[in-house]
Amino acid sequence: MRFFSILLLIGAAAAAAYVLGAQAGRSRYREIAHAARTFWNDPLVAKARDRAMKSAKKSTKKAAKEADKLKRRAIKAMG
């Protein structure tokens, strides 16, 4: 019977710790999410995102042209 009482006490402590930790975790999650949204919507970050997208599109087009050139050269070499 003593073992059961100890086990029950440990279970109750674990449940309380879980509930308190979940509440603290939710609060911290909200803080982090707010900071991430603030950062993402910053005008300087938006400008950097636009520049990165333009650069990626330009590089993709360049790589596609080069791949097409190499494909044509390979087909020509095969016969």
TrEMBL record:
**Source organism's superkingdom?**
Bacteria
Which organism encodes this protein?
A: Microbacterium pygmaeum
Composition-biased stretches, type Basic residues, lie in 70-79
Name of protein = YtxH domain-containing protein
Locate the region Disordered. 55-79
